[in-house]
Write a structure and sequence with these properties.
This protein is mainly beta and 453 residues long. It has a single domain, classed as YVTN repeat-like/Quinoprotein amine dehydrogenase (Methylamine Dehydrogenase, Chain H), CATH 2.130.10. It is 4% helix and 38% strand. It contains three helices and 31 strands. A five-stranded antiparallel β-sheet has the order 1-16-15-14-13. A five-stranded antiparallel β-sheet has the order 2-8-7-6-5, with no helix packed on it. It is globular, with a radius of gyration of 20 Å. The termini are far apart.
Length: 453
């Protein structure tokens, strides 16, 4: 029984023909085998950061695939005004079965036409499943458009895909990529058809979705980044056995979306972080290796080298897309500190975050970025505020405290967010908010659409 609607099977195959030659000519690209440390193989003019996408160019060939299977839809209704900001929202319409708990762990993506895509999952291990949603400002509805298990030959009683933990990232032809993650790793077994977590490709214009591959076998993907001009997406793979034993969970990898193959696997296995990949305006990727240090991968050379500028905290938790001047903003853990990375790679500390921050988004003019503290359940300690940080001074201001409104309208306490995006004119914020009853922080997920004064 569905909580609000039905869901069927769907899928798609999407690629950009114009980039086939360019992507396949990445240095050393061959068969995609895993090696160590070497290359182997108009409803509104809304654009969000991070990862805004636009309709494909005429020379992008997007073959026909299986269409979205439309699920239940709900109206995103106006809830009220806080500090002059107009807040609209809706509970994600989910299937009617018990989750472990229902939650949202990954960052969504907004398109130039105003649509916003995101995911929630049941957080289960055995038979776990995650669901993809579209917010359409033309209809002002939030709709389920697909689920993961409909795309795999899943054997009941084996491990599933209870989270989409990674960021949704843009491809070179307007497509969107994301990856699955186990809901819980407790007792996880790689058996049946579950040999690791999957990369998916979503075509929001052809309205199709396609399962691609397991980029690193027997691993999950906790984070993704993208360099659309190179046709590469980047990720951090996690070995659940090593992670749960306190070891080094897994490597960084690069995946060629046109060739549909893993073309680089780092020989450095990170022991901390594996939650965010910073990508600069040249498509160079940076990931945490502990102690405030970053390792880099340059797609122009196919080489990985240490970065010579340290972060103000132990490991990287969240980043923005590059601003208009090429500056990328990020936040660390241990401690929670914001920083700026200039186009030349120099890192400068900005200010302390109020609390644990798992998602941030830069305004289109680069003057500010937005975040909410207390991602993992305690945002209400600060009133669940949407915060604005001035990028030139590091000064933080409260845009709107959201917990009281959410409690009043939905009866849930705001737990926190892993999912923030901002519009191209800087006037609209999308936020996915984990919420729970009484003292709980999880159990349901709310989409908030915040129109700034």
């Amino acid at each position: 029984m569905w909580r609000g609607g039905h869901m069927g099977q769907f899928g798609a195959f999407v690629f950009c023909a114009v980039l086939l030659a360019a992507c396949s000519s990445e240095p050393g690209a061959t068969n995609g085998g895993e090696t160590s440390g070497e290359t182997v193989g108009d409803s509104g003019s809304v654009t969000s950061q991070p990862g805004a996408t636009s309709a494909p160019e005429a020379d992008c060939d997007i073959p026909e695939g299986q269409a979205f299977q439309e699920g239940d839809s709900v109206e995103v209704a106006e809830l009220g005004t806080v500090n002059g900001a107009t807040i609209s929202g809706a509970l994600y319409p989910r299937p009617d079965y018990e989750g472990n708990p229902w939650s949202q762990w990954g960052q969504g993506i907004a398109l130039e036409d105003g649509r916003f895509y995101s995911a929630i999952g049941d957080h289960l291990g055995v038979d776990g499943n995650s669901y993809i949603y579209e917010y359409d400002p033309g209809t002002n509805e939030l709709s389920m458009v697909g689920d993961i298990l409909s795309h795999v030959d899943h054997e009941p009683g084996t491990w599933g895909y209870g989270k989409v933990h990674s960021q949704m990232v843009p491809g070179p032809c307007g497509e969107v990529y994301f990856s699955t993650y186990w809901g819980t790793s407790s007792g996880l077994e790689f058996e049946g058809n579950y040999t690791g977590d999957l990369i998916f490709r979503l075509d929001p214009f052809g309205r199709t979705m396609d399962r691609l591959t397991v980029p690193i076998e027997f691993h999950g993907q906790a984070s993704l980044g993208a360099a659309p001009t190179t046709g590469l997406i980047y990720g951090e793979a996690v070995d659940p056995i090593e992670r749960d034993a306190g070891g080094a969970p897994g490597p960084f990898f690069a995946y060629d979306v046109s060739g549909e193959e893993t073309v680089f696997v780092s020989d450095i296995r990170s022991e901390v972080g594996y939650r965010s990949v910073l990508v600069d305006e040249d498509g160079v990727a940076y990931w945490s290796i502990g102690g405030g240090e970053l390792q880099t991968y340059d797609p122009a050379t196919g080489e990985s080298t240490p970065h010579d500028s340290a972060m103000p905290g132990d490991w990287l938790r969240a980043v923005t897309e590059p601003g208009p001047d090429g500056t990328v903003y990020g936040v660390t853990r241990e401690p929670d500190v914001f920083f700026a990375m200039s186009p030349d790679g120099e890192i400068t500390g900005l200010s302390d975050a109020l609390g644990y921050t798992a998602s941030m988004a830069v305004a289109p003019d680069g003057a500010a970025f937005f975040y909410m503290p207390g991602a993992h359940g305690n945002s209400s300690e600060w009133g669940s505020p949407l915060m604005r940080v001035d990028t030139s001074t590091g000064e933080e201001t409260v845009v709107a405290e959201l917990n009281e409104l959410v409690m009043s309208e939905f009866g849930y306490r705001a737990g926190g967010t892993y999912n923030i995006a901002v519009s191209s004119d800087g006037q609209r914020i999308f936020m996915g908010l984990n919420v729970g009853l009484d003292d709980e922080s999880f159990g349901e997920v709310i989409l908030l659409v915040i129109d700034l004064p």
